[in-house]
Amino acid sequence: MKKFVILLFLISTLVFSKKSNAQSYTITHDIYWATYYQNMWGPNGSPFSINVNLPLFHIEFDTNIQLGWMDTTLGIVTGAMFELDNWLVIGSTFEMSGWESGYVDVIYPVETELTIPNDYTFNPGEIVTINSEYTVLPGAELVSQFPQAGIISLDLDFGFGLNLDATVCLAGCTTIPIIDVNIPLDSIAIFYLNGQTGEVVYPCIQNGWIAFCEDDVLPITFNNLWGIGLSGWITLPYIETTDYLDLSDPCHQQLIANGDSNYMFLNLDIIQFLSAIAGLIPPPQGPAIQQFLGMLQGTYDLGGGIYVEYNLLSAWFDITNTMQQDLTFNPTVQTIFSFPTPVEYTVTNPHNGNQIVDQGVSDLIAFPTCCDLNYRYPCYGWPELEIGYSAHLYNEFTNHVWDSLAFTFSIEALEFTFHIPFPFVKSYTIPEMCIHALNENGESVAFCLPEITNEEFYPNLQTKGELAQDSTKDGGPKLDWHIGPLIDMDIPIGYIPITWYNNTWELDGFLDTIFAPITMIPNPEFEFISIVGNDNICAGDSI
Predict the structure, then answer these.
(1) What is the predicted pLDDT for the residue at 440?
(2) In the structure, what pLDDT confidence band is assigned to residue 310 with cuts at 50, 70 and 90?
């Protein structure tokens, strides 16, 4: 009798298990999730304001050089000595501030689907699997409204000091001032655009004269009229994004929106620009700049065949700015089950080799609507289970705003050639001399002129790179010192990504949706009369 009952139980279990593998039904629900006017710069109530000060380039240079030659014969001093004292600061700063407005709308309609075993196709104590998935319905959107109330500006920082004197001794000694310029360091606005007040300031031509214009018309175009040294255009950035749906991950079907705004292209000849606006700058900077620009290059004759050729400064840069915005709405549609009693469960991901993503014992289970819930139906006392069912939309929203900046800067400064005749003496020695200058990487390095003696000078006159025969001046040989350019730099930057803002948070406004409960009914519990010492048999128990 005992063997018969056990055999009957096993046959029944096999029959019910076979039905369980083949029979199921589906529950589908359409959910229209949407949220509107969410702050673009972080959770509502804590807005972010862009406030960036970006030095595009900054060069500081300071040097003091003494060079030349003096010789005393029979108490008579002949020769020339030069003293050069110089400092230079040049740079440019781009600033951006404000931009605290702006919002996003997210519309995310979905259809959820649960696949559930039919009633009476599983046994008490058996593992029951509920499959889940969701589909994004037509009409999903990620819409952005970029702010229009920011401020951008570009400044040129410039200061320059140069003192060049010569002490010339022929029949007597005389100190001659050659160049004496001092331009205090100042910041000069190239443009200023304020979207909050509507104020716009930029250099322009008014009635045939250079001026700083103020208006509210954008974009501004510079075409180097009247040789102001500034070409290009500028406007306030405004990004319009285009969205699309990324279905590559069934568990996180993302809405992504991208856009850009090419808002600045400028080419600036710094010397030409300073020359154009120097008359608009108040003292002491304005007059000092005008004096400086009047002597940028030339020749200064000290007499007696001694003269200096010089080139003080040339510099220019161009810049292109494109602001980019990348918005990502990364959702997780969650199915939430509320059981009347705690159950043992695992959550597995069928899209990743059935990897277990969660497990435990609980009466409240939330899992991504793309995974399988595997729970053990209670063995005793539950002829049916009523499971509460709701859906929640968890999300991570990312706003990444950044600039794609291309920039080129070139400068040559402080180049001198000193010409000194030597008809006076038969023997002399000029000692080795070293000066410091900036290389193309902006690093200070030493450049040395070797010691020069009379014996080297005359026999090798035509082969020395620093020595030259000049028959047109005084009929005799000359010693030429060529120095510089002490600053010679090219900074080509093809592309720099500059992040203004990059943050991730959860967007508010998506409401949970509650559905009708799900009722699951197993096969009847098995009852025995004192055969195995237990009146109830649960699936998986040993008999």
Answers:
(1) 53
(2) confident
Answer for the pair 127, 375: CB distance below 8 angstroms, yes or no.
Answer: yes
Q: What are phi and psi of 383, to 5 degrees?
A: -65, -20
Nearest CA to 327 out of 263, 401, 262, 253 is that of 401
Predicted confidence (pLDDT) at residue 9 exceeds the cutoff of 60 = no
Count of CA atoms in the C-beta half-sphere (13 A) of 151: 14
Task: List Cβ neighbours of 345 (8 Å cut-off, separation of 6 or more).
Answer: 358, 359, 360, 361, 362, 365, 373, 374, 375, 376
CB atoms within 10 A of CB 333: 24
Cα separation, 225 vs 342, in Å, equals 81
Taking Cα atoms as reference points, which of 106, 208, 187, 104 lies closest to residue 147?
A: 104
**Phi (first) and psi of residue 137, to 5 degrees:** -85, 160
Tokens found for residue 50? 């862009």
Integer Cα distance of 386 and 61 in angstroms: 81
Between CA 508 and CA 395 the distance in angstroms is 9
Instruction: For residue 350, give both structure tokens.
Output: 């069928």
Which two three-digit tokens encode residue 444?
Answer: 């200070």
Look at residue 250 in the predicted model and tell me its pLDDT: 96
Res. 120: pLDDT tops 80: yes
Q: What are the respective helix, strand and coil percentages of the chain, to the nearest 5?
A: 10, 65, 30
What does DSSP assign to residue 119?
T
Residue 125: φ, ψ to 5°: 85, -5
Alpha-helix residue ranges (DSSP H) falling in 55-140: none
Strands (E), 422-486: 429-430, 433-438, 444-449, 452-453, 467-469, 477-483
